[in-house]
Amino acid sequence: MGHKVLILGEKESFIIKILVKKLGDSGIESVFSTYDEGKIKELWDEISVITFCEEDGKDLPGEVKAFVENNLGNRRIIPLQKPIDYEAYIASINSDDSQDSAGDKKKILIVDDDPNYMSLVREWMVNDYKVSMVTSGARAIKWLGSNKADLVLLDYEMPVTSGLEVLETLRADDEMKELPVIFLSGNDSQESIRSVEHLNHQGYFLKTMPKDEFLNKIKVFFMEEAE
């Protein structure tokens, strides 16, 4: 079964028209939609690849982003990056891998004092990402001092050095102040969520989040980072 690409954008721009033609010339079916949730839902079962063609870098509308995160399944997100290399883009569509290559896997560090939960999350992600784990905030800071990560999944509640304290330390370091961090927590209180708002984090995931929703949110995060 061939791929069918859903291209999303505010309008059918000149770049999108070129993309549709080049996909057609390569034997790949595609369809364009604005950020119309109803139309996207109608097309959803037919498509295997989603391309977000966001030229001005704005976030997706909230209801569309939520739908994609919760229903991504086996569909792949392949962003259209500038400068556009159409041959590389089409090659990535024809690839069976969700990442460009094994060597290019995104690096994720999980920081959690619960080894059972940490191991579970690692098993969810290990096929698509290069995953490392540490069991305390102090070890996370030490690990990040000599290793690179594309994303840190940080337990909010840990003994000795809490997730909040870890992030404060990272944000005070010039080399790590922009490092993407998503909190993991079993606490959904508004007080806990508000306590980290000033620290420029990239999300707050509840540990009760189902596997598919968790993985979809990680995929969408990296898609938006690539824009």
Automatic annotation (TrEMBL):
TM stretches of this protein: none
Keywords: Phosphoprotein
Domain Response regulatory positions: 107-222
UniProt-listed SUPFAM superfamilies: CheY-like
Keyword Phosphoprotein: yes
GO biological process, alphabetically ordered: phosphorelay signal transduction system
UniProt xrefs under InterPro entries: Bact_response_regulator, CheY-like_superfamily, Sig_transdc_resp-reg_receiver
Domain of life where this protein originates: Bacteria
Signal sequence annotation: none
Sites of 4-aspartylphosphate modification: D155
CDD domains hit by this protein: REC
UniProt-listed SMART domains: REC
PANTHER family named in the record: CHEY SUBFAMILY, STRESS RESPONSE REGULATOR PROTEIN 1
Reported function: May play the central regulatory role in sporulation. It may be an element of the effector pathway responsible for the activation of sporulation genes in response to nutritional stress. Spo0A may act in concert with spo0H (a sigma factor) to control the expression of some genes that are critical to the sporulation process.
Entry protein name: Stage 0 sporulation protein A homolog
